[in-house]
Amino acid sequence: MSVTYYVALPFVRTEDGSAAGQALECQSESQALSRAGAMARDAANAGAVAFKRSGDPALGDFSDAIVIKTFGEVPDKLDEL
User: Fold this and answer.
1) Helical (H) or strand (E) element with 15
2) Which of 15, 21, 29, 37 has a Cα-to-Cα distance from 51 of 20 to 30 A?
3) In the 8-state DSSP scheme, what is residue 34?
């Protein structure tokens, strides 16, 4: 059975730029967008991204992440989401 996961992921500032923070699973695309926007407004974060992934958790088979929207400063390469 295929399931879609929606995620908000902040990026925290580091000496070398930014690094992924603690991801937050969301119930819907709109909630992921809202949470990522709020994360990006937090002074502790450089930015955030809302993304989704679909797949079968029983098989551990998931498609690549699809970025819904980025907020603030996030790395150019997001292919390891």
Assistant:
1) none
2) 15
3) H
In a 3-state reduction of DSSP, which class is residue 21?
Answer: coil
> Environment class of residue 77 by beta-carbon count within 10 Å: exposed (0-12), middle (13-18) or buried (19+)?
exposed
- pLDDT digits (tens), the chain, 81 positions: 889 999 999 999 888 878 999 999 999 999 999 999 999 999 999 999 999 999 998 888 899 999 999 999 998 877 655
Alpha carbons within 13 angstroms on the beta-carbon side of residue 64 total 5
Contact 47, 70 (CB under 8 A): yes
Enumerate the domain spans of the chain: 3-72
Residue with tokens 């150019």: 76
